[in-house]
Amino acid sequence: MSKAPNSVLIFAAGFGTRMGDLTRKTPKPLITVNGTALIDHTLEMTAAISPETTVVNAHYLADQMVEHLREKPVIMSIEKPDILDTGGGLKAALPLLKQSAVFTSNSDCIWDGPNPFPLLKNTWDPNAMDALLGCIRVENCLGRDGGGDFDLDETGRISRTGNFVYGGVQIIKTARVNAHPNRTFSLNAVWDDIARDGRLFGLDYPGRWCDVGHPGGIALAEALLRGQDV
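RE: above sequence
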């Protein structure tokens, strides 16, 4: 089996529109939960895999992101003039990541349980997988509107619709991303191609997870981190 990936892209370019006034002058990754910015919660988790390279992308209020991360061991990937969505953001960052498979992570969620990064690293099998997504059962998700995104069969292979929510952390091979014809696109398009080949897998995360993409998620995440029954 080939070496597990050790480069990470953290998505931090979005407008955070669901946050309303909270993101009018502040990028969502700098919103604090328990006194710590969301981007810093994410960086603390990535430390468990000792990444060789960590890239953070930025677009909305990018200057604030650059200043906040100035002393951190990260490389910035600034998207301009337009925001590139998840697939386009990863494609733009590939020259900085320099690996054939990488971790990606959203920066607007809190995990309660084992760190998902080493779990994914230990489960990754590049002989069978082109992507491995960290997935949480709907009943273990806080601040989530709607049902699940995926179903996982007994081997972990993913299909659309089901009782699992994508938690925002994955390992993905970069070849299909790099080959995508568009500059701006969602990773969903790449996942669909991978799924058709039977190489899209999910990890059943054995803990709870909170979406902090909207104002109500902040209080839920803080209660979760305090160990309260929420």
